[in-house]
Amino acid sequence: MLSAACTLSACEFGGPLVGDSSGDDQADSGTTEGGDTGTDTGEPLCGPAEGVVATVIDGDTIILDTGHRIRYILVDTTEITNGKDECWGHEAAAYNEALVLGKTVTLEYDVECKDIYGRLLAYVSVQGYEVNRMLLEDGQACVLHISPNGDDRFAEYQGLENAARNAKINMWGACNPVPCD
């Protein structure tokens, strides 16, 4: 099986969390005061449960109107920030923008709340559809698994990526080589 997980170096962009920093201590621990996870399912309450997307940074990072910077869990799109202009980066960003910009999104967090850049890590859904999955299914992204986040979905997401890769959908047919290989 082809390994399509991207490396951390392909994801080095963004910056510290912008806007309101209230709740940062809770986000770092994955729990609310008193140790409660904040949800009925036991998932950590790292940040807002939903918000309106104010800015699309690229194919896998958004900023809410509250200033919270969100990085999608288990996906990586090719880079167009910090001087990079990789194959399919602009297309993936436009795809993401068409899905979420100006819309209310629902955020589902996993074990770790933030990445090393201070971005909240989440599965992002719009109108009941998970954007993370859609990016993989439509050949806009590759799988990026940084355990423990995504451990329970990794095999499923790898299957989505492999199906798009084998069908040469979007970046898998347009880019040679695909930057995240």
Structural account:
The protein is of the alpha+beta class and 181 residues long. The chain has one domain: OB fold (Dihydrolipoamide Acetyltransferase, E2P). It contains five helices and eight strands. Strands 1-2-3-6-5 form a five-stranded mixed beta barrel. A two-stranded antiparallel sheet has the order 4-8. It starts with 23 loop residues before the first helix and ends in a 7-residue tail after the last helix. The N terminus is likely disordered.
List keywords for this structure.
single chain, 181 residues, alpha+beta, OB fold (Dihydrolipoamide Acetyltransferase, E2P), five-stranded mixed barrel, two-stranded antiparallel ribbon, 5 helices, 8 strands, globular, disordered N terminus
N-to-C span: 13 Å
CATH class designation: Mainly Beta
Order of helices and strands: HEEEEHEEEHEHH
Biggest sheet character: 5 strands, mixed, barrel
Strand content: 15-25%
Helix content: 10-25%
**CATH architecture grouping:** Beta Barrel
Shape: globular
Alpha-beta classification? alpha+beta
